[in-house]
Amino acid sequence: MRKFLIIAAAATLLGSAHAQQSSPDRAAFRAIYEELVEIDTSEATGSCTRAAEAMLTRLRAAGYGESDLRVIVPEGRPDDGNLVAVLRGTSRQRALLLLAHIDVVNANRADWERDPFTLIEENGFFYGRGSADDKAMAAVFVDLMIRLRTENFRPRRSLRLALTCGEETSDRVNGVAYMLEHNREWLQADFALNEGAGGMLSPDGRPLALNVQAGEKIHQAFALTVTNPGGHSSRPVAENAIYRLSAGLTRLSQHQFPVELNPVTRAFFERMAPIVGGDMGASMAALARDPSDIAAQTAVARDPSYNAIMRTTCVATQVDAGHATNALPQRAVATLSCRVLQGHAPEEVQTELRRVMADEQIAVDIVRRRDGSSAPALTREIMRPLERIARRMWPGVPIVPTMSAGATDGRHLNNAGIPTYGMSGMFAVPGEANAHGLNEKLRVQSLYEGREFLGAVVREYAR
After folding, report:
1. Is residue 9 scored above 50 in pLDDT?
2. CB neighbours of residue 351 within 10 Å
3. Same domain, 231 and 325
4. Residues 342 and 434 in one domain
5. pLDDT, tens digit, for every residue of 415-428?
6. Is 307 exposed, middle or buried (0-12, 13-18, 19+ CB in 10 A)?
7. Which element (helix H / strand E) includes 384?
8. Is pLDDT at 459 greater than 70 in this prediction?
9. Is residue 166 part of a domain?
10. d(CA 98, CA 75)
């Protein structure tokens, strides 16, 4: 019996793989993905508007009317355009938002092994800036909207698509924030699907966990500043802005914010414990049982990724000091990148940083204050379709909730009352994609599986 089940399962998987490989619309999807990756949408040298207009052209060709499509460009920012589209459902009051950002981090061609703005398929990977973050998801959603239109699919919930700019840098107009203020009707939905979670592979490529993201930390910058009169460098004095700031940074380097688990991170450690196994798995299980367990905290925190979801973190990322090589510094400034846990305001972190600095001459200022957001509930309405499709595609692979230690545009939607969940079904070995770094890549198989997964999930939610 066991042998029969194994053979049947293998046949099913082989059949699914063959169906994917022979799918007549696979080439059309790949063309969308290629076009998006090869349009430079970086802040330094590119244009989101070009990518938005290219996808508008594709949707228009699929039959979407002018009232169902729009490229929204913020006034005075011609390269920060966003695309919105809608497939209207039978219920006027209900909608699902498909969100993906199309801007990418800057990429210097001289540093890359391959041209960052040419999609290259090599050794089972797609290479290119944005190939993983976030043009894979953008391409999947555009492709899905086209397929549903050509199928004359009539959803109960309207499907809204938003391909947005400004997620990767504060130097651009954030498309989600802008449209919530000026064009909210295009984003209004019961809930939204967004980037933020994929799936975890073992080093040998076995699926270990399918992730669903609910909530994220807030990225809040702080400036630490010391000023004094300075003087001639031939007459050193004890009071030196650089030394004083350095002493404060040394104290910060030895400081840890307290561990705080919420329902999502507690479930993460509980469900990941048997997957990780060994001493780390045991420590994760102990932490999930008792978040105040100091030994478990210490053991789990040795992994930077796990530490990042256990507590607020602040790290120095930039320093600017002095004005001349032959003068005592009149000013020294350090920039801190803080990732603040949900439920805490930037002012709380500011108070703690002042305590850690223990020096009234080190000013602690909030830079471009950001509001945090609460985690949306993982309701049965969200989880049931996800579980059914996961069982079919990856039998026996557990679903593990996650909280993002980074930041996505989901925070804007959650704050606006639109629950937003990260899910893509695109698996990777942790750190493999190197998003934001050199030679960004995504597994070919992961892209096509993510396409199948998201297509099935959206159809379920839309019914």
Report:
1. no
2. 12
3. yes
4. no
5. 999 999 999 999 99
6. middle
7. helix 380-393
8. yes
9. yes
10. 24
